[in-house]
Amino acid sequence: MIKIINIGMNHNTAGVELRECIAAEPDNIIKVLSFMRESECIKEGHFISTCNRVEAIFTTDNVQEAKRSICSFISRLGNIPEENFLSSTYTFEDMDAVKHIFRVASSLDSMVVGEPQILGQIKASFAVSIEQKSSGVILNRLMHKAFHAAKRVRTETGICEAAVSISYAAVELAKKIFHVLDNKKVLVIGAGEMAELAAKHLMANGVKSIVVANRTFERAEQLAKIIDACPVSFEEISSELQEVDIVIASTASQEHVITRKQVKKCLRKRRNRPLFFIDIAVPRDVQPEVNRLENVYVYDIDDLKGAVKSNMAQRQKEAIKAERIVQEEVVKYERWLKTLKVVPTIISLIDKTESIIKAEIKKSSPILEKLTPEQKKAVDKLSRSIAQKMINDPILYLKRKADRPALNTYIDVTRKLFNLDEDRNQDQDLYHGYK
After folding, report:
1. DSSP secondary structure string for all residues of 148-188
2. 111-129 pLDDT per residue, tens
C-alpha cells in the first residue's frame, strides 16, 4: 500500500548551523531529487530547502526502508552525523503529512505566521521536481492542492494583512499617514538590514524617489544600487531634510543622528509641509525633542512594537480560520486519494468494454462489410455509446464508495460480477453464458 511520508526539520527543531549544511550547495536539491527518482523504495519525491526548513516528501510502499535511505542520504549530503540529523527531524505520514505541507504552504508553520515568501519558495522547488521528473500523480496533485489551500488562506482570511516586522510596520505607518506613497520622497538613514528591508517595502508600495545616507558612503552606494536609489553623504542630510516627506532612520549610532536644531533650521524652507520621522533604531537616531516642532511628527520603535504586537494577535485570530481552511482541503485531498484505489478496477472495466466491442464488431464483420463508411461509423458510435452507458453506473457507484470502509468489498464484487480477473490470454467468447 502506497503511503505519503514527510521527513523534515525547521527553525523549531534544528539550529541554523544544521539547516545551512544542507542548503550550502545550490545543487543539493537536484542531488536529493535524483536520489529519490533512482531509489527502488521511493515512488515519487519532492524536496524543499530554504533558510528555515528542509522537507523531503515522498511516496513509498516500504516505509522503513525509504525513511532509512533518505535520512542516510541527506545526512551524508550535508556532512552531518546521522544521529544529529535524526534527532532534529520530524516525520509525518499520510494525512498528517498532507496537512503539514498544506500548513507550510499557507505560512502557518513559519517563523512569522503569514509571511509571503514560503509559498514562492515551495512553488520554485516544485518546478525543479517536475523538471527532474521525480514527482508523479500523487505528489503533483498534493502540491497543487497545497497551492490552492494557500490561496484560499490568503484570500479568505486577513492573515497576511497586518505588519509583523518592524521595517514593514514602519512602511504601513507611512501609508496610514499619506494614504498613497507614489509621489513621496523618502530619506533612509542607515544601510543595514532593517533599513534595506524598509526601503524594499517602500518600493513595493509605490515610492519612486528614495535617498540613502550612511556614514560609510560606499555602503550607501551599495544599498542605493540594490534599490535603485540615490546615495548621499551624511553631511548632506540637513539639505535633504528640506525636500523629503518621510525619514526612516536605522543606524547603529550611539548618539542622535537627527537633532532638534538641525530639523528646526530646515522648516522655513519646507513651507509648512509636514515631515515624518520613523525611527527604528535602538538607541534612537532622532532626538525626542524633534517631535515638539510644528508640522514634525516622530514615531519610534516602541510605537511600532505596539502595532506589531497588536497585529501578531490579529494574525493568530486569522490563523484559526486558516487552520479550518487547511483541514477542509485535507479532507478533499484524502477523498481524491481514496478514489485512486478504484482506478485500476475502472480501467479494467473500460478495457473489457473495449474488448467486447472489438470482438463483436469482428464477429459481425461479414455483415458490416456491406455498409458504407458512414454507416460503419454510426454502428461503432452506437455500440460504444451503449457500452459506456452500461458501465457508467458501476463506475459512479465505485467512486461514491471510495471513502467507505467496505471499499475493498465493493471492488471485489465489481471485479467478480464483470469477470475482470479472467485470463486475458484465453481466446474465449466474451459473451459466453449470455447466449
Report:
1. HHHHHHHHHS-TTTS--SHHHHHHHHHHHHHS--TT-EEEE
2. 778 877 789 999 999 999 9
